[in-house]
Structure formats: C-alpha cells, structure tokens
Amino acid sequence: SYVDYQHRGLVRFQIDVLGLDTVSKMGLVIECKHWHRIYKQRSKLIDAVKEHIRRVERLVKFCEWVAINIPTIRRVQIFIPVLIVLRPLMPKVVEGVPIVALSELGDFMNNLRSYVDELDIRRYQNRCYVR
After folding, report:
1. pTM above 0.70?
2. Dist. CA 61–CA 47, nearest whole Å
3. pLDDT tops 80 at residue 83
4. What is the mean pLDDT of the segment spanning 56-71?
5. 26-43, pLDDT tens digit by residue?
C-alpha cells in the first residue's frame, strides 16, 4: 500500500491510499474523509465522490508516469475507487463509488470480490497492466 501518493507531473493529483493486491489483481484507490455532519450536506458527499472519480481517471490516464514511482501498479488489472468515512452513511454507493465507514472496512476488505460483483461499483481497467 502507498499512503499519500502525490503525482507531480504535467497533471497533479493526490491519492490518500493506493492499495495494490497483485494476487487478486485489484487496486483500491481510497479517499479518506473526516466529516462529522455529512448527513446534513449530501451535496458535499456527491462533490467528494466526483472529485475522487476525477483522481482515479487521472491515475488511469497517467499510469505510465505513476509506474515510474510505483512499478507494482503494472501488476494490477482493475482499480476500484473507495471513499472511507468515520461514521456509517446512507447511501452505501454514490455514482458507483462505495462509501465505507471505518468500522465496516474489515468486512468490506474481506468480502471485496462479493461487493464488487453484487453492487454497481465502478471499475477502471488499468491500461498499464502487464501480465
């Protein structure tokens, strides 16, 4: 895993946590939020999800450059964006991005394949994937 990855090339972007599993060939692109009253500001959640989607799309588009710093990225076939929050929220998926409470993270990780298959979760093909 890589924490606080900051890409400083032509296009700049930051990823809180990049979890790469070369066995399952899945990578989690995680954005962490420390909100207290998000349930009163749904638009804030939607904006955060949209911005996170833009980050993941930049990661995919510029993966060759990212691979210079993180060569393991070439061994991951699919990226999944995830938003981690302190407290459980509804809905659990916004625009295809799972919203996972910190207390639910263990279950989410242990059952990731099931969640990805059962829920309408965004998946991004890694164009830099090398078998």
Report:
1. yes
2. 21
3. yes
4. 94
5. 999 999 988 766 555 678
Please name the amino acid found at residue 37. Answer: R
Q: What is the residue-wise DSSP string for the chain?
A: -EEEEEEESSSEEEEEEEEEETTTTEEEEEEE---SSGGG-HHHHHHHHHHHHHHHHHHHHTHHHHHHH-GGGGG--EEEEEEEESS--S-SEETTEEEEEGGGHHHHHHTHHHHHHHTT---EE-TT---
* Separation of alpha carbons 87 and 123, rounded Å: 24
CA distances from 118 to 112, 121, 122 (A): 10, 8, 12
Distant-in-sequence, close-in-space partners of 131: CB < 8 Å, separation ≥ 6 = none
